[in-house]
Design goal:
Function: Metalloprotease.
Strand content: 5-15%
Distance between the termini: 57 Å
Structural class: alpha/beta
GO biological process, one term: proteolysis
Radius of gyration: 22 Å
GO molecular function, one term: zinc ion binding
Pfam family, one: Astacin
Keywords: Disulfide bond, EGF-like domain, Hydrolase, Metal-binding, Metalloprotease, Protease, Signal, Toxin, Zinc
Length: about 325
């Protein structure tokens, strides 16, 4: 008689769980086309954060009534970007300001719900793993840092583009309906200095805009504007970018797309995470691969890393300055 071997209950449950996770992954991947372009680097977030990127459902990013749906901007800068006349005599439109040394100091609003805090932390982790951007959490009674980001829950998802030139607190809203890692990454990329992909001056080679299906008050959201405030660093147009609008953005008729990719197989508007070229643009803009060396001896940097200095809020600023390579703050 053949012997039967029974697995321990814990092991058998693990196998069942693994099978379920595998089936969920297959189900998720069945909705995602395999394409010949660069594979998007979503990391661990593919299954739990999958959404129908072409779904004709108004997004929270579109509901704030702001410039392009989710950008905080002053009137003169908006006129400049859209080719209008700057009305204020003393208005000076400066280049987008970036974060010195790629360091963003941030805090959470005291009224922010735990769920949103968790999603924001995961979005920050997603960026930290793939770029050299450093995020340093600061206390709510901060008096040391003038430029910092406060995450809060406003009416939708939005941010300004770049660092506020007046060196004051700036906000990123992760409101109701914004609880996706890719949406957090999208808004942080605005704060880092990035615009929407569809506003590139060369976009007409890659997408067609159906102006007849856009409400008149939202037509400004589809204008191209000069790129002297930004750059694509020679990277190709990126359908996969987390900064791209969806097919049905600001549609009058939710069954008819407003953006039609020239590549009929392309999916646009994903909010899963950074694409390959999103990551490359961040790392190029913030010079992630230049001069990333430890200023302390390997002995000291490794020792402090082992003691948790790279992750410690108390010592992280010092480690960013002294041991960026050991702490893997340099990006990929």
């Amino acid at each position: 008689m053949q012997k039967r071997y029974l697995l321990p209950k814990v092991a058998s449950r693990s196998i069942v769980r693994m099978r379920k996770n595998f089936l969920v992954l297959l189900l998720c991947l069945s909705f995602v086309r395999c394409e010949s372009r660069r594979v998007t680097d979503y990391g661990d977030y593919l299954v739990q954060d999958y959404v129908d990127i072409d779904a004709s459902i108004p997004w929270a990013e579109e509901n704030s009534g702001l410039f392009e749906g989710d950008i905080v901007i002053d009137e003169d800068t908006e006129r400049y970007l859209t080719g209008g006349e700057i009305m204020s005599r003393d208005a000076v439109v400066s280049p987008i300001l970036y974060w010195p040394k790629g360091v963003i100091y941030y805090m959470f609003d005291e009224k922010l719900e735990p769920l949103k805090i968790d999603i924001i932390k995961r979005g920050i982790h997603h960026l930290k793993e793939r770029t050299c951007i450093k995020f340093v959490h600061i206390p709510k009674n901060n008096t040391r840092h003038k430029s910092y980001v406060r995450f809060f829950s406003g009416n939708g998802c939005y941010s300004r583009v770049g660092r506020d030139p007046t060196d004051v607190e700036q906000t990123i809203s992760i409101g109701d309906g914004c609880e996706r890692i890719g949406t957090v990454v999208h808004e942080i990329m605005h704060a880092l200095g990035f615009f929407h992909e569809h506003t590139r001056p060369d976009r007409d080679k890659y997408i067609k805009i159906d102006w007849t299906n856009i409400e008149e008050e939202h037509s400004r959201n589809f204008q191209k504007y000069p790129r002297d405030l930004g750059s694509s660093f020679g990277k190709p147009y990126d359908y996969d970018s987390v900064m791209h609008y969806s097919r049905f953005a600001f549609s009058k008729d939710l069954d008819v797309p407003t953006i039609i990719p020239a590549d009929g197989e392309a999916s646009i508007g994903q909010r899963l995470g950074l694409s390959y070229y999103d990551r490359e643009e961040i790392n190029t803009l913030y010079r992630c691969h230049e001069d990333c060396v430890d200023k302390m001896s390997p002995y000291k940097c490794i020792g402090r890393s082992i003691l948790g200095g790279c992750e410690s809020p108390r010592f992280q600023e010092m480690m960013i300055e002294s041991c960026p390579k050991t702490c893997k703050f340099c990006g990929e």
